[in-house]
Amino acid sequence: DGLAQIVEAFGHEVIGADGRLDRPAMRQRIFADREARHTLESIVHPRVRLWLHQRALADTGPYCMLAIPLLAEHIGHYRWTDRVLLVDVDETTQIRRLMARDDIDETLARRILANQATREQRLAVADDVIDNSGDPAMLDAQVAALHERYLALTTGN
Description:
- This protein is mainly alpha-helical.
- 57% of the residues lie in helices and 5% in strands.
- The chain has a two-stranded parallel ribbon.
- The N and C termini lie far apart (45 Å).
């Protein structure tokens, strides 16, 4: 029903030939028009929040991690979480990776980041931070250490 509501709000041109949301076209549109972005967020975010909360409640592991890209912007909706982990990187690296991941130019990448919380705002809500600017081995070591810490937190050790 979310996709149908997106089509209702934005028209059939947001649907690709495969019948799925044309994410690149939508990205161009919502980062050129603030109102369009707010409309899309009002459709998507409540559904995502509900889905994440249900997943967390159903999880039976020692701890549950949720990936929430716009957490700092919407922290009030996630007060039911116990901790916030930020996977952090400097803005230059963030822009470079965004351009590569989404095959977009630097202008759009900067526009996307300008519509998100700043690095300082994200750091302010974080309980834990992983530095993702180094090589994968460094990242693996940080993840392993944090995993041990989270296990200890769940057992009270």
